[in-house]
Amino acid sequence: MGVRDVRICVLGDSYVVGVGDLTGQGWVGHLALAARLRGLDLTVYNLGVRRDTSVDVSRRWFGEVRSRLKDGDVFGVVFAFGLNDVDVQAGERRVPRSRTLAVLGKMLDDAHGARWATFVVGPPPVADIETMRGIGDLATGMGQVCAAREVPFVDVTAALSCDEIWSQEVAAGDTYHPSTRGYERLAALLRDPLLLWLNDQAAFRS
């Protein structure tokens, strides 16, 4: 059996886009490079949209993914969102915690029904303390939703909140997004679990 043709879609918000990274790679670009350097024939579709919440992603994801994962050997979907859900506007959270978790669960179930493997990334930390409380609580819930479905989940909130480079770059920028080195730190956290997931899917479907 030759090298498997692996294709994944990454859906989410501005962190998926890589806002703030002067190189334009973001963590998604770093992942793609790392996978190819390890011999994976990987095509990555970056489907991030700035300011998107889980609800926004849920309204567009299936059609966008279906139009892209129509060829190849191995298919996967990565969901990465959460910050915009906890954002407070006019005194109200944009998306209640319970709805975020319900939406995530439905997307994972629908992806399973379409035979697309899934992987979930929690929301990264920001400078605002009140927002951080919401992010941490949401990340815990997202992890529980994923665990119930045996879907890999990486909680980057706690790890990056203790990361000096991430914190410095977020504080120096718009208080939400890091620059190049911060995205490198995020990519370093995700690299091994994501590559393991990709390799497992390639082996399972060979």
Beta-strand percentage?
Answer: 15-25%
* CATH topology call: Rossmann fold
Structural class: alpha/beta
Considering DSSP H and I runs of 4 or more, what fraction of the residues is helical? 40-55%
Spans of at least 5 consecutive residues whose pLDDT stays below 50 are none
Spatial strand sequence of the major β-sheet: 2-1-3-6-7
CATH architecture: 3-Layer(aba) Sandwich
Summarize the main sheet: 5 strands, parallel
Number of strands: 7
Q: What number is the mean pLDDT?
A: 97
- Secondary-structure element order, as H and E? EHHEHEHEEHEHEHHH
Task: Supply the number of structural domains.
Answer: 1
Rg computed from alpha carbons, rounded to a whole number of angstroms: 16 Å
The tally of helices reads 9
CATH homologous superfamily label:
SGNH hydrolase
CATH class wording: Alpha Beta
- What best-fitting shape do the alpha-carbon axes yield? globular
- How far is the first residue's CA from the last residue's CA? 8 Å
Brief summary:
This protein is an alpha/beta fold and 206 residues long. Helix content is 53%, strand content 17%. It has helices at 14-17, 26-37, 54-66, 83-86, 97-113, 129-148, 156-161, 164-172, 180-204; strands at residues 5-12, 41-48, 74-80, 88-89, 92-93, 117-121, 153-154.
